[in-house]
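B., you asked whether I could sanity-check this one before it goes into the benchmark set. Here's the sequence:
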Amino acid sequence: MDATAQRHCILYVEDDEDDRLLAKEAIEESTPNVDLRFVENGVQALAYIRGTEPYDQPGAAPRPDIILLDLNMPVVNGREVLRVLKTDIQLARIPIIVLTTSSSPVDINTAYDLGVNAYVVKPSRFDDLVKVFKTICDFWLGAVHFPDVEAETSWLQAGSEEPESAAGGNN
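And here's what the prediction gave me:
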């Protein structure tokens, strides 16, 4: 499946205006058929994803196919956003990719402990940033199959017994 065959929505949570501009240019160059949405901090990210003010008007906040998340932001940082999203059964299935300048093992381990789907250190060169966005889009928007958000969110939510396939039974 070609990542540009269908228009996908990416929410990028990034407080740095220059990084947002570079990301916009890199996405346009690498994967032009992406609807890239920006919010500047964790509070805005949670409001966007939950569809609360100022994102409560129809069409104002399409559900993102993936979320790109900076870690170090004011107000509510990326770790807290990650913690909230990955513990909410309605939102936990949205893939989250940390895209940050930090290569700290503590930050990497913490992000994975909180349920991040991938951790990428922002490259310093624009050409490399274009490659990173192309790789992210080709994989996450081209190769990956997403769950149906309208379908039952979990066998746990339904209150049923563990599915046979999850318990290691025969398919």
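One thing to flag: Residues 165-171 have pLDDT under 50 and may be disordered. Otherwise nothing jumped out at me.
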